[in-house]
Design a protein that fits this description.
Strand order of the largest sheet: 5-6-7-8-9-10-11-12
Bound molecules: zinc ion
CATH architecture of the largest domain: Alpha-Beta Barrel
Distance between the termini: 26 Å
Strand content: 15-25%
Structural class: alpha/beta
Number of helices: 13
CATH superfamily of the largest domain: Metal-dependent hydrolases
Largest sheet: 8 strands, parallel
Helix content: 25-40%
Length: 396
């Protein structure tokens, strides 16, 4: 790996994303040795490493093999299923490895990936990603979450949960307007309790107001006192349900201690899609209201370069830019949604501190608004006190 700048380094007058004022940093031996308030300026903006809590490393970089653009979420699911015949160990390793390399180069230090899991057999991708996670440990830490349609999970859940537990993973399900939904969700929570597993759901990823799987998930989380252990991804249908009902639901979600992952790019691309017609609805979960109700809100990449979303580069700061625009967010108030909030959710911290590792992102910008505004501003990725060569930039 090409590096530069060995020895003691200083950065003067930098902004720290999400914190007031300017700061001077000294770096030696791979650590931040001092971090002090400064009167200087011009040092750029520094962000902690990013944590991408919701991705799909088994599906990624397959968009070139898709016969056409997806016309709906379920059309994307069909095309993706047809592609699994190509998923050899080598194919999975090549595509997922490329994804991790891109994430690392873009300043991500942690990724959680959902991996499709049907039936009792551990999927090939789970084995391949477990090996890749070992290779990448310390550069990009990888967490794996099983992703099984809810109806299948209640049939095969015992063996899936046991295998997921044995490999230190998270249990997940795809929940969307299933028959007998509440009792099936309760069965998933039974499994999680019995095996001491965290849960991560794809829930209500659509625009029918009848989609209310999240209601059952919140109720079970409250009942079983599983705060901080249950993450809900998408929640698009919340954007079309009655506001008063949603407010009351989010309040219960805050009390229950669920987390909400908002996937702004994939949802904007796939929701309300119809060839030749401009989308009116963008499937954005009510993230301001959720956070105000006490729910931990995070942003993730979701699908990258596959049937669901043929774009993206595991650049979570770019996802953040989309979230800022589509969600009317003040960047400084929400930067934690791609760094500290998801890191904390997995029991880690990315926060910069004196004595901590010199791992961070430095952008040649006056402040965070400036960084969001200028996608081509130079970006340095610092790992262990050294700059990854490909991101050297001019800060003068
Ligand atoms: Zn997803």
């Amino acid at each position: 790996m090409p590096m530069r700048d060995y020895g003691i380094k200083t950065i003067e007058g930098a902004g720290l994303a999400g914190r007031a004022g300017r700061w001077d940093l000294s770096i030696a031996g791979g650590r931040i040795t001092t971090l002090r308030a400064s009167q200087a300026s011009g040092g750029g903006v520094i962000l902690p490493l990013l944590a991408d809590i919701h991705t799909h490393l088994d599906k990624t970089f397959t968009s070139c093999r898709m016969p056409q653009r997806a016309e709906s979420l379920f059309h994307a699911i069909e095309m993706m299923a047809a592609d699994t015949r190509n998923w050899s160990d080598a194919d999975l390793r090549e595509r997922a490895g490329k994804a991790l390399a891109r994430a690392y180069a873009n300043g991500t230090g942690l990724i959680r990936s959902h991996l499709d899991w049907h039936g009792t057999q551990t999927p090939k991708a789970w084995h391949v990603l477990t090996e890749l996670a070992q290779d990448w440990h310390g550069r990009v830490d990888v967490e794996l979450a099983s992703l099984t349609p809810l109806d299948d999970l209640v049939v095969h859940g015992e063996s899936i949960a046991a295998a997921v537990k044995a490999s230190g993973g998270v249990l997940g399900a795809f929940v969307y307007r299933n028959a007998d939904l509440a009792s099936k969700v309760a069965q998933v929570f039974d499994l999680a309790e019995r095996c001491d597993l965290h849960l991560d759901f794809h829930v209500d990823e659509g625009l029918e107001p009848e989609a209310c799987g999240i209601d059952a998930i919140i109720a079970e989380t409250r009942k079983r006192d599983m705060q901080g252990r249950v993450l809900c991804g998408h929640g698009c249908a919340l954007s079309v349900r009655q506001p008063a009902e949603v407010a009351e639901l989010l309040s219960r979600g805050g009390d229950a201690g669920i987390g909400l992952t908002v996937l702004p790019e994939c949802n904007a691309y796939l929701q309300d899609v119809e060839p030749g017609r401009t989308p009116r609805l963008r499937g954005l979960a009510p993230l301001h209201e959720a956070r105000a109700a006490g729910i931990k809100v995070m942003f993730g990449s979701d699908n990258v370069r596959d049937a669901f979303y043929p774009y993206g580069d595991y650049d979570l700061f770019d996802v953040f830019r989309t979230a800022v625009l589509s969600g009317h967010l003040a960047p400084g108030d929400w930067i934690d949604a791609i760094s500290e909030a998801p890191a904390n959710w997995t029991g880690r911290s990315m926060r910069l501190r004196e004595g901590g590792p010199a791992d961070f992102i430095r952008i040649a910008a006056a402040d965070l608004d400036d960084a969001v505004s200028r996608p081509r501003a130079a970006r340095q990725i610092w790992r262990g006190g050294q700059i990854l060569a490909e991101h050297q930039g001019d800060f003068t």
